[in-house]
Amino acid sequence: MNAPAKLVQSPEAFLTALFDESILIKTGVDGLYGRAGVFEEVIDGIENAVTKMAAGDQATRIHFPPGMPRKNLEKAGYLKSFPQLAGCVHSFMGDNTDHAKLVGMIERGEDWTEMQDATEVALTPAACYPLYPTVAAAGPVPEGGRLFDLKSYCFRHEPSKDPARMQLFRMREFVRIGTADEVTSFRATWLERGEKLIASLGLPCVIDVANDPFFGRTGRVLASSQRDQGLKFELLIPVTSDENPTACLSFNYHQNHFGSLWGMHFAGGEVAHSACVGFGLERTALALFRHHGTKVEAWPADVRRVLWG
Ligand code: AMP
Ligand code: ZN
Q1: Model confidence over 263-276: pLDDT tens digits?
Q2: Protein residue whose Cα sits closest to atom 19 of ligand 1
């Protein structure tokens, strides 16, 4: 089966097709999948294309693990804004008596999770979160600012049958720290680059103003203020629906929010601004499978060249 039209009847139908073709491997938990070799080759190809586009930018590459200090997630306000998405690692920290109780609970099929306590580790929700405190700790931001190239597996608790909404997925991110002008022109450059890159992959896209999924009633106010100020844009590609295209790339301007929160400032004391551009690697790969079919050998030659040159 290589006909893209068949893949897009519904998100569930696309997921089933991906399982049937062994492109994604079912684990029993929605949003938690194994990836076949061919899926990983596509991810590598997308990363190659992104790296080529950023060649010459001289970004500092850093690879954080998919966990970050829990206290930094708290300080970043993540639990205030997105409590529904956060994940914290828990472990057993008891003694022999507690251990016997734990094993008994598991044997009886009882809920044993109360036997665990929160560790110092939280799961990273976006690749840039672990970065800011490390930049602040490195001293004043130099003249001309800084540019980072990051990649991380990210966790968000949003179980879904939509294959484009995973609980664990990878984000490639570029993060610019500098003056307001420097970081907004970085974002403008990537808005153009992003569109060009996606077009070179033979994918249709639109760019639109967007908001993050802030929680609750106060969240609605935050979301509309974010939209009114044009702080977030997304590049959308039809992946599981033509009517509701999926955000595959995000372009965020944080103003001086992270600068003042973490103490990122220039030698003169002025607080730094920041912006980040995130590529959803799984979503972009799924867009390629959706539009070009499940047989990568049959993908258009120019698309294959962009991916694997
Ligand atoms: P965000 O911080 O929400 O703008 O996310 C950055 C990028 O990560 C988005 O543009 C998506 O491509 C990707 N992304 C966000 N949430 C998910 C998810 N649940 N599953 C897969 N990719 C995601
Ligand atoms: Zn970011």
Answers
A1: 999 999 999 999 99
A2: 165
